[in-house]
Amino acid sequence: MAKIRTLVVDDSATMRGLITAALNRDPEIEVVGAAGDPFEARGMIKALNPDVVTLDIEMPNMNGIEFLEKIMRLRPMPVVMVSSLTQAGAEMTLRALELGAVDCVGKPTTATGTAEALVEVAEKVKTAARASVRTKADAPAAPARRGAYLPSGDVVAIGSSTGGVEALLTILSQFPETCPPTVITQHMPATFTASFAARLDRASGAKVQEATDGALLEVGKVYVAPGGATHLEVVRSAGLRCRLVAGDPVSGHRPSVDVLFRSVAQAVGEKAVGAILTGMGRDGAQGLLQMRQAGARTVGQDEASCVVYGMPRAAQEIGAVEKQVSLSSIGQSILDLASARR
To answer: What sequence ranges are listed for the domain CheB-type methylesterase (predicted)?
Structure first.
């Protein structure tokens, strides 16, 4: 099988060397070039025709966001952003993911972090190589205007990974102020989820916030699992509440979509709607099946609109998905299912 031809773009010679060495250690990847700024990278992209680019956000002359915009407009290709784990870095990375970057990885800040991040960047590059990258002309149509929604007592649970930033922005922009209580697990670095919740809040009619332990699930509110150390669950305790649980990764992830979906199956049962979105791997498939077996309604994002058709495919294959829906229609489909009389 041909190796994944990768171009590394970073203004730090040290970081270029570390990323290059880490990627070349993976037998599935070949680094074909390394550039110190976007102008050098532009020539290398034309000359080397890489399959994937890793792109630093903070660079001189032209930052990574500006360069990414040019790439996605002129020559769309899989891009993995490499970002500092700071508030400003998180906000710029989210902007990059909105613009079409496939995924992101945090720049290491310690020796231990360096080893972990460099292993992660290789996995991200391999995922990116399988991604469906669209031009903005191919992106989902603008969501329909938010309509009125009469709360029905249902709870919505959503799981997503690679490509989930675009998907969740599209879906939640369709949610009105009266949307069902909604819980979300999106695979994302710990330092990014608060900024992501704030970005979703600006796009949605609902109030979107990072989930906190013990938070009461309320109509018109959306709760995003914090990245990193805990899983998000839904439990019954004087109403339905968020619970953050420390534990090992499940299905390869922490927070895990499987953990969230299983808790919703147990705590909410048939008064729930589950949606599984774009992402690599199988996280969420078994949990969504448990939701469906408990009487919940379930939807999966269709292959054509996924950046990576992994998680929805896995759920579809085991019978967890009641129906597949395009990204532009999922938001309204979730609201319709949550209001349907059983």
So the answer is: 149-341
Residue 145 lies in a domain: no
- Do the Cβ atoms of 336 and 191 come closer than 8 Å? no
Cβ neighbours of residue 73 under 8 Å, at least 6 residues apart? 135, 136
Supply the mean pLDDT for the chain. Answer: 91
Instruction: Please identify every residue annotated as catalytic.
Output: 161, 187, 283
Q: Is residue 281 part of a domain?
A: yes
* Residue ranges making up the domain that contains 201: 155-339
Closest by Cα among 11, 261, 285 to 157:
261
Helix (H/G/I), strand (E/B), else coil: 272: strand
Provide the whole-model pTM. 0.92
Is there a single domain that holds both residue 329 and residue 209?
yes
- For residue 47, what are its two tokens? 């000359």
pLDDT of residue 122: 93
Asked if 292 and 238 sit in the same domain, the reply is: yes
d(CA 317, CA 192) in angstroms, rounded, equals 31
Q: Where are the alpha helices (DSSP H) in the chain?
A: 13-25, 38-48, 64-74, 87-99, 111-129, 164-172, 193-203, 257-267, 285-293, 311-317, 327-339
Give the Cα separation of 291 and 289 in Å (integer): 5
